[in-house]
Amino acid sequence: MKKVFVTGATGLLGANVILKLLKDGYSVIALVRQKSKYLGEENKNLMLVEGELMSDLSSYLTEVDCVIHIAAETNQNLIHYEEYRKINYSMTMHLFYESETYGVKRFLFVSSANTLGYGTKNAPGNEQEAQKYPFTHSLYAQSKLETENDLLENNNKMEIIILNPTFMIGAYDAKPSSGKLIFWVWKKKLVFYPKGGKNFVHAEDAARGVVKAMEKGKDGEKYLLANENLSYKQFFEKVNKITNQNPFMIPIPNILLNILGWKGDVLRKLKIKTNLNTPNMKAFQIYNYYSNQKSVEELDIQYQPIDTAIEEAIQYFKTKKRGISK
Fold it and tell me: How far is C-alpha 56 from the chain's CA centre?
């Protein structure tokens, strides 16, 4: 039985990856800050380890075949690049070198689609496209890209595979994280939507892609885990249909988003944390579209409709009462 070490086990993708690994018969060691925050069930093939990425993990990495590194700093309100770099770069490289020292064969790094260049509906971005604005000015995306580059430059003893998931929707979104986009429209009578769009993928499919990449991905390659390119209006309409609601929908003028971005830039200069900044507001205005052709052909992934992901996320939120206001 192959042994896999996973970080980020309490997040949306991490929880789904662990469920998929256990279902496929792998032995899993999962690094968590608190065992109580793990969302899955107990399993004889799962060991939860409380610790930090900078901890001495040597005793858990011996005889491990693959490390799947998902944990990351994803908050959008941090002010300084070093706050992202400390976790997304430095801690990743620490885990990478420790894994290399103890003979791990494969290292999978879960990055972001926003380190790659997006495209249009008719010509979506792919793994060969260079990163584009506004993500060239996103501190989070930059920290991920720096890590990708250094990992690929130092893959002398281990095989390195980079996964670039797009916007994930699905069950086990405890915070919620990306599921907040559902709450933007769910149970609302009036909905304001940005004019741009992005690529959406079922979290379960992204998890399947991670496991498939571990099994058959090529050393030194990047794989977009992506599915449906939708405008925000189209995504919200799907949520409306699934939840049987019909709110009045109003587009947000781009100039208003620009003003909010400028306001956030000023607040950040005053050392005030906020999700508002020019790159984030510009991201709402573009069509951030990607292709899944490479992952379909090389990893043999069959993607589910995003409607299924929305339905499962909503059912999960209802069951767990995550973020649902009375």
Answer: 26
